[in-house]
Amino acid sequence: MEKRIKLGISTCLLGENVRYDGGHKLDRFLTDTLGQFVEYVPVCPEVECGLPIPRESMHLEGDPDSPRLVTTRTKQDMTDRMVKWAQKRVAELEDEGLCGFIFKSNSPSSGMERISVYNENGMPVKKGAGIFAEIFMNHFPLLPVEDEGRLHDPELRENFIERIFTLKRWREVLGKKAGRGNVVDFHTKHKLLILSHSPKHYQAMGKLVAQTGDLPLKELYHQYQTLLIKSLELKTTSKKNANVLQHMMGYFKEQLSSDEKQELLEVIDHYRKGYIPLVVPITLISHYVRKYDQPYLKQQVYLNPHPLELQLRNHV
Ligand code: SF4
């Protein structure tokens, strides 16, 4: 059976009653939809560092660059306890082979960004990260991370899920015997996906894999992985996708009638203008890829980067 993608997640998002008030923050998309394709590794920093349920609520205060985690009513400082636990926990998580983490938004422990840090006058500045989230992101700087709030945005959702599926495929390459051919093969299949995020990275990665012999294998893998992750962090846009779609259309110059070419150009243009979602031109091109058995495009992950059931391209 195919191994599932492993994702870290804030435990309360799975519906576990671990919050300070004894409640949860169940997110049905994460459990019922994405949950079909991933294996979650739940982490609740506050409970795992030994605090009870229910417990006093906490917030961040002090210097936004180095905030303290303090209980809101009795002002107990939990920072040292949380930091000590978090450093141990991230070291344990190294063995899990995570492809990403989904954090709970707005949490002083688990939130990844724009967490309120209160100054001495009790005024909040939305600048901090939760104590555990910060330590996690520093420990795993290349891992895709998001919070459940941002994942309600269709574009951020599609981007995050594309990144975790790509990272899983890359990890499968890392699991094979090291060889230049494996990197070239991975790159060939991911070319158009990378191009849809960053033409600049596409060029740099093309040059990197074309180098023969002069770069030690370990260095090739390292440089390729960094460029891959950095490229996919850059968001696709309708303009970048339209360029990729037109590039793909070029492979059917000989086969398509002028009517078919006209129709495809119109569909791409309608997508670029935002009248129709990405799934429409992708479906039409996939039809031609199958019909004409186009060998290069057939293997492009761009046409199918994540399960269709997630319907991610119906909304971007
Ligand atoms: S936000 Fe984080 S610390 Fe708070 S209950 Fe959820 S998992 Fe636990």
Task: List the main descriptive attributes of the protein structure presented here.
about 325 residues, binds iron/sulfur cluster, 4-stranded mixed β-sheet, alpha/beta, elongated, 4-stranded parallel β-sheet
Query: Helix-strand pattern, N to C?
Result: EHEHEEHEEEHEHHHHHHHH
Give every kind of bound small molecule, once each.
Answer: iron/sulfur cluster
> Looking across the biggest beta sheet, what order are the strands in?
2-1-5-8
Please identify the structural class as seen in this structure: alpha/beta
Poorly predicted parts: none
> What is Rg?
22 Å
Molecular structure report:
The chain has 316 residues and is an alpha/beta fold. The chain has 12 helices and 8 strands. The strands form 2 sheets. It has a 4-stranded parallel sheet with strand order 2-1-5-8, with helices on one face. A 4-stranded mixed sheet has the order 4-3-6-7, with no helix packed on it. Helix 6 runs parallel beside helix 8 and helix 9 packs antiparallel against helix 10. The site of iron/sulfur cluster (SF4) has 13 residues, from helix 2.
What's the topology here?
Elements: E1 5-10, H1 28-33, E2 38-43, H2 45-48, E3 58-61, E4 68-71, H3 79-93, E5 101-103, E6 115-118, E7 124-128, H4 131-139, E8 145-147, H5 154-174, H6 180-197, H7 199-210, H8 217-233, H9 238-249, H10 258-272, H11 279-291, H12 295-298
Parallel strand pairs: 1-2, 1-5, 3-6, 5-8
Antiparallel strand pairs: 3-4, 6-7
Helix pairs in contact: 3-4, 5-8, 6-7, 6-8, 6-9, 7-8, 9-10, 10-11
Bound molecules: iron/sulfur cluster (SF4).
